[in-house]
């Protein structure tokens, strides 16, 4: 799933490549991905791209006339920018492409989604706050101060892993970077938010800032096509179950759930004890 660093890098890439270009054509191949109908998606045609940014994990393409194309890439979505886009319109329901935007210099981008479980969402709105998911976001993970961060996570009451990934608590962190942040902070993903000390919250905030800042620095400047590989190259525990922890050498372990999993280092995070699978055993906190 694209998270804060990758979405920030995609926005930076669009600012560099697309700002100033005029939208000449918009094709929608997956009607289910388009979540708004007024204004219609055709309202983008004839407008120039004025900027690109993000709100948490939402990508925001700004166009003149106060119009925005806001996209949530969900779990398996991505943006592919092409210097030359074919002239043939997309056929609805064919292939992984959900939406295509073509600009006046012949370039453009496809919003794609792999797999059968579709979650990619595109909104055409006068203001990003009109997107329900954007309106519900908590403070950005790279902007929230330590005290506010601690207060919001304590107010969530539950496992710290779940609190970090709740977009209404703090925006921008998903499954992968929450694993990385907790590893850097030397905290169990099953630790309870109301039992963390002030010092642990300070360490967690510092780990969040350092992890995300480093990931943004490595990601911004990459082309969209190389961002996924860049993300994988910087991970220490996420998606590395069975491999040695680069910090302490212990074997990275995994806890699986119905539709997701987490990875952690017992040596760094749980005093050497393996976490139990929630489906069969009690937690180790």
Automatic annotation (TrEMBL):
Coiled-coil ranges per UniProt: none
InterPro entries: FPG_cat, FPG_N, H2TH_FPG, Ribosomal_uS13-like_H2TH, Znf_DNA_glyclase/AP_lyase, Znf_FPG/IleRS
GO biological process annotation, one example: base-excision repair
Reactions the enzyme catalyzes: Hydrolysis of DNA containing ring-opened 7-methylguanine residues, releasing 2,6-diamino-4-hydroxy-5-(N-methyl)formamidopyrimidine
Chain ranges of the FPG-type domain: 236-270
A Pfam family matched in the record: H2TH
Alphabetical keyword list: DNA damage, DNA repair, DNA-binding, Glycosidase, Hydrolase, Lyase, Metal-binding, Multifunctional enzyme, Zinc, Zinc-finger
Residue ranges of domain Formamidopyrimidine-DNA glycosylase catalytic in the record: 2-150
A GO term, aspect molecular function: damaged DNA binding
Cofactor(s), names only, from the UniProt record: Zn(2+)
Stored CDD domains: BaFpgNei_N_1
Similarity comment text for this entry: Belongs to the FPG family.
Name this polypeptide is given: Formamidopyrimidine-DNA glycosylase
């Amino acid at each position: 799933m694209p998270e804060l660093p990758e979405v920030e890098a995609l926005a930076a890439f669009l600012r560099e490549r697309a700002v100033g270009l005029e939208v000449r054509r918009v094709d929608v191949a997956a009607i289910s991905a388009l979540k708004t109908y007024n204004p219609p998606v055709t309202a983008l045609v004839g407008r120039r791209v004025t900027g690109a940014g993000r709100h948490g994990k939402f990508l925001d393409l700004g166009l003149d006339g106060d119009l925005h194309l806001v996209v949530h890439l969900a779990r398996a979505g991505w943006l592919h920018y092409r210097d030359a886009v074919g002239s043939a319109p997309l056929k609805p329901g064919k292939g992984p492409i959900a939406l295509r935007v073509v600009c006046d210099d012949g370039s453009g981008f496809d919003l794609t989604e792999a797999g059968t479980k579709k979650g990619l969402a595109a909104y055409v709105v006068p203001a990003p706050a009109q997107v329900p998911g954007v309106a519900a976001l908590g403070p950005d993970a790279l902007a929230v101060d330590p005290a506010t961060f601690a207060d919001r996570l304590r107010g969530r009451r539950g496992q710290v892993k779940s609190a970090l990934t709740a977009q209404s608590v703090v925006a921008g962190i998903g499954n992968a970077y929450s694993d990385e942040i907790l590893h850097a902070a030397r905290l169990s993903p099953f630790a309870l938010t109301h039992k963390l000390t002030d010092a642990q919250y300070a360490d967690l905030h510092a780990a969040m800032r350092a992890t995300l800042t480093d990931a943004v620095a490595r990601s911004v400047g990459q082309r969209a096509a190389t961002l996924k590989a860049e993300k994988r190259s910087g991970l220490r525990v996420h998606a590395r179950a069975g491999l040695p922890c680069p910090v302490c050498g212990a074997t990275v372990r995994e806890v699986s759930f119905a539709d997701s999993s987490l990875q952690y280092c017992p040596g760094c995070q749980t005093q050497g004890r393996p976490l139990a699978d929630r489906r069969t055993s009690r937690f180790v906190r």
